[in-house]
Amino acid sequence: MAQDYPIGTPGEKWDDTNKQQWLAQQEKQRDYANDVIRRIDHLREQFDVETYGELIYDDKTFPLFVVRSRNWRVNNPTVLVTGGVHGYETSGVHGALYFLETEAVNHLSRFNILVAPCISPWGYETINRWNPDAVDPNRSFVSDSRAQECELIMTYLDKHQINPDVHIDLHETTDTDNSEFRPAKAARDGTTNTNWNIPDGFYLVADKQRSEPGFQRAIIETVKPVTHIAPADDEGCLIGAPMVQEGVIEYEAKPLGLCMGMTDARFVTTTEVYPDSANTNSVECVDAQVAAVRGALEYAAKEL
């Protein structure tokens, strides 16, 4: 169903005035310092915590953190977990933190672990997909990125020569994709929006160039006892992409500028939780994210 958006002129791309109109409508709805930084501080006894940059938007400064294994071993494979690339996707942020608080210790002997729990803190506070410049970070992991959120984490990885073997990027698909974000994107780009069917359940987006079907299947099987897996729609698709196996679709990660395409990790995936389902709740969504990371590491440990 096409949907009009209250900013801009249909068929015309937004100019700077339109973007400022959009930005003026965004309000803080939750607190990054209380929800995220406070929990990161509690991890300092067991992990190294580093600030890899800061975002400055108007009068607000957001420090950006990575949490990493204290005893980094050169010969161990490295796993990267990213959350909050889309700040509004709550279980991605809290799933990354809860993984550190509960599950990560079980894998420290086998892996170097690096977690960036909240790449887009302004988006987290305003419950937004974009950054204040109306740029989608998860389409901006490219060499000439227009998103500071992406440039800073990519610079950190490059500076420290961190080349992950495993990368799990934690996301959600929500009802607001259809009610707000897809209509806003169409308005911004001067195109016509057609909403998609939102899958009811957990699914994965694999990189078509590094699909690793066994890896994706292992994650799905680990998540199944925690929450339900999304069925395909009547056309055998999830969000318009063909389902290549139960709960798995594929995208071209690097050409699209997706977060999961920013490294050359052999094992890579993007998780998608549906928190608006009548068959789940916020706790289960976070648990599903942690289960996904666990399934990924258990599989990779046998292969690396």
From TrEMBL:
Name of one Pfam family that matches: AstE_AspA_cat
GO biological process, one term: proteolysis
Cofactor entry: Zn(2+)
Keywords of this entry: Hydrolase, Metal-binding, Zinc
Domain Peptidase M14 residues, every copy: 28-304
GO molecular function: hydrolase activity, acting on ester bonds; metallocarboxypeptidase activity; zinc ion binding
InterPro entries: AstE_AspA_cat, Peptidase_M14
Similarity annotation: Belongs to the peptidase M14 family.
Protein name: Peptidase
Gene source species: Pseudidiomarina insulisalsae
Taxonomic path: Bacteria, Pseudomonadati, Pseudomonadota, Gammaproteobacteria, Alteromonadales
